[in-house]
Every structure is written in C-alpha cells, then in structure tokens.
Amino acid sequence: MLDKIYVMLIHYPCLGREKQIIATAVTNVDIHDIARVCRTYNVKKYYMVTNLPAQQEIVRRVVRFWTEGSGIRYNPSRSEALNYVILKPYIEDALEDIEQRENQKPVLIFTSAKKRSDSLTYAQGGRLLQSETRPVVLLFGTGWGLPDEVMALCDYDLEPVRPGGAFNHLSVRSAVSIILDRLIQENY
Length: 188
Hints:
This protein is α/β, with parallel strands linked by helices. The chain has a single domain, classed as SPOUT methyltransferase, trefoil knot domain (Alpha/beta knot, 3-Layer(aba) Sandwich), CATH 3.40.1280.10. It contains 8 helices and 8 strands, in the order E-E-E-H-E-H-H-H-E-H-E-H-E-H-E-H. A 6-stranded parallel sheet has the order 5-4-1-7-6-8. Strands 2-3 form a two-stranded antiparallel sheet. A hairpin with a 5-residue loop joins strand 2 (14-15) and strand 3 (21-22). Helix 1 packs across helix 4, helix 1 packs parallel to helix 8 (172-185) and helix 6 crosses helix 8 (172-185). The longest helix has 15 residues, at 53-67.
C-alpha cells in the first residue's frame, strides 16, 4: 500500500485567524521542501491546491523552472522531486484527478494541530497505510487549519505531532516531514 500515498497541501479553503474562510499564500519553500519529502518517501504525487490565479502562476513558474528550465541541469535531484507536484484550483479537482489515476475513491486523512478524541495514532495510521488497498490522501492545511466542511469529507484524522505540547505551531513543511516519517518508518 505504501505506493499509493498522496499528499495534498491546501491553500483554499483554509481558516483565518478569526475562523473565517480564506486563501493563504503559496511559499516557494513549501513547493520545494514538500516535493523533496514526497520524493524521499515515495509518495505518489504532491497536490498543491490554490484557487488564486496569481498563486497558481507562482507554482507553475517554480515547477517549470526546475522541470523544464535550466534548473534541470543545475540540480537534477530537485528536478526529479518537483515532477511530483500537481497544481489544482480546488480540493474536488485534486480528488477527481486521483480517482481517475487510481480508478477508485481514495481514503482521506486530515491532519491538525488540534487533538480530537477519535484521532488515529501514528501506529494506527501506519497499520492503515499497510493494510489499505485504496489510495490514501493526507490533507495538510495552511493558515489556521482546515474548515469543518473539509474535515467532514475525510474518513480519518491523525493526531497532532505534539498532542500535549504547550507550543504546537510547526511550519507545514516540518509537519509533513515528521508525519510521513512517523507513518512510514515502521513499514521499512
């Protein structure tokens, strides 16, 4: 099953500081670093979801430079990682793309910095990845997290990286790295 994991970084819809629905800004380091983590852990694809045309253009330009431009010669490993990036305007578009690739609906797992009583532990999540025959999509929010309507689409949620920690505000690229490592490491 480990060859059917997808990562989705959601920039819209996300929550703002006041719990309103917002679109967050794409960052260059998230494009690069998460793609490199996805390549390292053999994630199938890395979806970046943003509905803002200007933000989409940033993603396209970065990916194009490293996969079509002089970046290929400058750093072939980065080029290889950036080939994992797929840009979509909405979550539904990304899920439709995954369903077409896999010919089945994926299992959706959202991540959060907030502890919930029914969250999967990393051990449970690792066992699920090992046993599940369908593709699995790990959804990561930006801003102040994912809105309720996105979480309601999901089959499971994963416990926070530091469920009891007093400070729980990692960068999303750090969270992706830690979470993939915890979920996959037992399976190597």
